Each structure stands twice: as structure tokens, then as C-alpha cells.
Amino acid sequence: MSQESAETLALQALAWLVGNEDLLPVFLGATGASEADVKVQATEPEFLGSVLDFITMDDAWVTAFCDTVGQPYDMPMIARQCLPGGGQVHWT
User: Fold this and answer.
1) Mean predicted lDDT score pLDDT of the chain
2) Do residues 50 and 56 lie in contact, with contact meaning Cβ atoms separated by under 8 Å?
3) DSSP three-state, residue 13
4) Count of structural domains within the chain
5) Which ranges constitute the DSSP H helices of the chain?
6) How many angstroms separate the CA atoms of 64 and 73, rounded?
7) Is residue 11 domain-resident?
8) Chain centre distance of CA 10
9) DSSP letter, residue 35
């Protein structure tokens, strides 16, 4: 997956998140971002990575998002690895 494709999927995730009135406040509280921050940072790859980090914390969120946009359930994690800070850490 290219970084551009990963950013596109992350933007879809952000739109899904913004449209979820129950989950958006949880995201804002967890990240410390305001709604204004979301608007300003929506095109920054690092911020988009944080959106995917948040969604991938819960299988139900991944399932709901992927079902909404018609993507396989592993796509948010694949996209996350293509954005800044998303590389897999190897501890050995």
C-alpha cells in the first residue's frame, strides 16, 4: 500500500469517526485534540496515523469502520504501517 492510499483510508476513518457522535468524544479525550485541531490537522500524515491507532484499539471499531467503507478488516492496520510512526517494532 502506498502512503497516499494509506492517507486516503485514514481520511475515510476520520470521516467515519467524526460522524460517530458516541465515539468522537472518546477520541478527542484520548488524544487531547479539539474539534478545531481535527479540522486543521486532518491532512497531516502523523495525525491520520493517530486516527488509525485509535480505531485499531478495539475490534468492534475496526469492524464497524470496515463494514461502513467496504474494506477488509486488516486494512486499517496495513494503512497504519504506511504512515509515519507506523513501522512494526521488533524487540529482539
Assistant:
1) 89
2) no
3) helix
4) 1
5) 3-18, 24-31, 35-41, 45-55, 59-69, 75-81
6) 9
7) yes
8) 5
9) H
* pLDDT exceeds cutoff 80 at 84: no
What cell was used for 17?
469517526
**Can you tell me the mean pLDDT for 61-72?**
96
pLDDT of residue 92: 58
20-61 confidence digits (pLDDT tens): 999 999 999 998 888 898 899 888 999 999 999 999 999 999
Cα 20 to chain center, whole Å?
Answer: 13
Residue 2's pLDDT band (cuts 50, 70, 90): confident
In a domain, 33, yes or no: yes
How far apart, in whole angstroms, are the C-alpha atoms of residue 4 and residue 45? 9
Distance CA(38)–CA(43), nearest Å, equals 9
* Band of pLDDT at residue 91, cut at 50, 70 and 90: low
Domain range enclosing 14: 3-81
Half-sphere exposure of 21 toward its Cβ, with a 13 Å CA cutoff? 0
